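Help: read this over?
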Amino acid sequence: MVQYVAPAIISAGATGRIHVGSFNATPSVVEMMQSGSTVTFDVGEDFPWLSRAILDQDFRVLLHTTPSVSEYAPVRVFTKQNASDAGTPPSFETGYGNAANINFALLWKK
């Protein structure tokens, strides 16, 4: 909904007084942050990491081994200072590093 809220803040002359925070690190919202909009932060999940965490649990169940008790995927807070880490233009898969890809492949011998 950020794409509707930000223009309303600007139209109301409330830029600088009212700020927007969001969740999902949607590329269009991160791009708004990069261009200096009223968006000041966005919390995002690394979707490939999250999918690998789910697959890891599924594989463990299928192999009749004990599922991990602390399986989770981290989140990252993007701000104006680090929004460029999400790419230019931003992408859902950029800005989280590649540790999940490497370690998943090592663990499951992919």
Notes: The longest helix spans residues 47-62.
